[in-house]
Amino acid sequence: MFEGQPKGLFALALANTGERFGYYTMIAVFALFLRANFGLSAGTAGLIYSIFLAMVYLAPLFGGMLADKYGYGKMVTIGIIVMFFGYLFLSVPLGGNTIALACMLAALLLISMGTGLFKGNLRVMVGNLYDDPLYKDKRDSGFSIFYMAINIGALFAPTAAVEIKEWAETSLGFSSNDAYHFSFAVACLSLVLSILIYYAFRYTFRSAEASVQSSAAAAKHEEELSPADTKARIVALCLVFAVVIFFWMSFHQNGLTLTYFANEFTQKTSTGIQSMAFDVINLVMIILIVYASFSLVQSKTSKGKSISVVVIMAALAVLYYKYQRISGSVDVSAPIFQQFNPFYVVALTPVSMAIFGSLAKKGKEPSAPRKIAYGMLVAAVAYLVMMVASMGLNTPDAQKVAGDGGTFVSANWLIGTYLILTFGELLLSPMGISFVSKVAPPKYKGLMMGGWFVATAAGNMLVSVGGFLWGGLPLWVVWLVFIIVCTISAAFMFAMMKRLEKVAK
Fold first, then answer.
1. Cβ neighbours for 443, distance < 8 A, ≥ 6 positions apart
2. How far is CA 132 from the centre of its chain?
3. How many Å is the Cα radius of gyration of the chain?
4. What angle do CA 341, 369, 255 make, to 5 degrees?
5. How far is the C-alpha of 288 from the C-alpha of 285, rounded, in Å?
């Protein structure tokens, strides 16, 4: 899995892990913070949430344009600095008045601008590592590893957000609303870690920092593309961008309607073995077992196999110890459900790579566009599960009136939904980024990677649809909307498949 990859991949992945940890710590509680601190309705909070997400993903278009001209490494560094000040301003508790709201919006603007310079350009640098013929066949697996690293940061974020907020309340005496800002402050520290990693290991990827316009090799390659080929590639990418809009519209409900569902319709406590799922340490142990198992099978030395066995036994011992100490019930906070998606990504990435690696050896691996289409269908299945879970439940408005007398469902419905959504994400997101880095005409790499994030931004703007549907409508209607858009998008992808696969060859 990790063999044969360029060293720069791991440095860039770790730098991104730190930044993503801070971002997802903040985003885990952001929608709840908006409603609690400013007294906003579900729709208004959802609109602010989706606009922010859209800005975070729209800004890379402009960041890519600047990087194509001035260099990717320079823009990444500036982006980290700008983000740091944005998170720093957001971490200051100013209350819930109009001035505080304006300051929060200004902080969000800085975060989105910094992310625009950082996010897409770091991915372009990863793609540049694979322009070397030595690593050409490792591109898809490299982006899967990079995507996995992102989710390692995201895995710990919900627990960090909840625990730090509770610590600020209980130990420092801050009010519940002011305590949210301590969760936001974590992002400042994580960005410091990211910049330290970036510069400590910069020597491993320095060649990938330069803008494509200054690269003689890239310029030579660009001459080999005719205007017609360049146009065909750009059109194919735009078709993919149009489709992934609706995936992100559906997927990023994890921070909005799925969090609302966790907060309003899911049982607030968990007992027995199910309660172990809400302890991030247990999830880490499972991840260690998965990776050590793969190492055990793939290792070529007895020492490697022995180490793998020791890791597996140690992780199982920790899980057994934790199971024996289960007593009573544990409280389940709504944001904690957001840890399941990154957990599944990290745990399932080697499984996914093994499956597609095996198919590749047999010449049967689906193309990147086909994987994206499958990802859309899988996302539709995830919301079908939510639709089934919601049958017979109150509307959100009625549930609010009912209070503790309302109907609540098992946490397993959401845990299962996140599992299915993650399968869709693994098929679509890392493969989509790899597709862009492979197909984009060299002199437009930054711009086209920015286009991927513009599509994500458009999808994030549409996330607010879920917030506005959340109220008087039956819950099954809310989920049906996402089933329909994902299914139609998949059908469109399959209709365009020949054109997309032609440029991907």
1. 68, 212, 213, 218, 219, 222
2. 27
3. 22
4. 25
5. 5
How is 58-76 classified by DSSP, letter by letter?
HHHHHHHHHHHHH-HHHHH
What is the pLDDT averaged over residues 477-503?
A: 93
Cβ neighbors of 219 (< 8 A, separation 6 or more) are 213, 442, 443
What is the chain's percent helix, strand, coil content, to nearest 5?
Answer: 85, 0, 15
Would the pLDDT of 79 be above 90? yes
Query: What is the CB neighbour count within 10 angstroms for residue 333?
Result: 21
User: For all residues of the chain together, what is the average pLDDT?
Assistant: 88
Q: Where are the alpha helices (DSSP H) in 91-175?
A: 98-129, 139-170
pLDDT tens digits, one per residue of 362-401 = 888 888 889 999 999 999 999 999 999 999 999 999 998 9
End-to-end CA distance of the chain: 23
The one-character DSSP state at 393 is: P
For residue 323, CA distances in Å to 159, 313, 488 come to 19, 15, 44
At 331, which helix (H) or strand (E)?
A: strand 329-331
Closest CA to 410 of 279, 271, 278, 267: 267
Secondary structure element (H or E) that encloses residue 330, with its range: strand 329-331
Which of 461, 455, 492, 503 has the alpha carbon at shortest distance from 242? 455
At 386, the amino acid letter reads M
**pLDDT class for 493, splitting at 50, 70, 90?**
very high
| Cα distance between residue 194 and residue 192, in whole Å | 5
Structure pTM?
Answer: 0.80
Helix (H) or strand (E) holding 277: none
Cα–Cα distances in Å, from 203 out to 125, 197, 209, 218?
13, 11, 11, 21
Q: How many residues does the chain have?
A: 505
Tokens found for residue 306: 């022995």
* CA 196 to each of CA 118, 201, 244, 346: distance values in angstroms, whole numbers, following the listed order: 15, 9, 33, 24
Q: What single-letter DSSP state applies at residue 403?
A: G
**Distance separating alpha carbons of residues 376 and 489, to the nearest angstrom:** 7
The helices-and-strands tally (H runs, E runs) of the chain is 19, 2
Which string of b and e fits 253-274 if b means at least 16 CB within 10 Å? bbbbbbbbbbbbbbeeebeeeb
Spatial contact of 353 and 144, defined as CB atoms under 8 Å apart: yes
> How confident is the model over 142-159, as pLDDT tens digits?
888 888 888 888 888 888
Residue 368 and residue 140 in contact, taking contact as beta carbons nearer than 8 Å: yes
DSSP string, 144-158: HHHHHHHHHHHHHHH
Q: State the Cα–Cα distance between residues 266 and 333, nearest whole angstrom.
A: 10
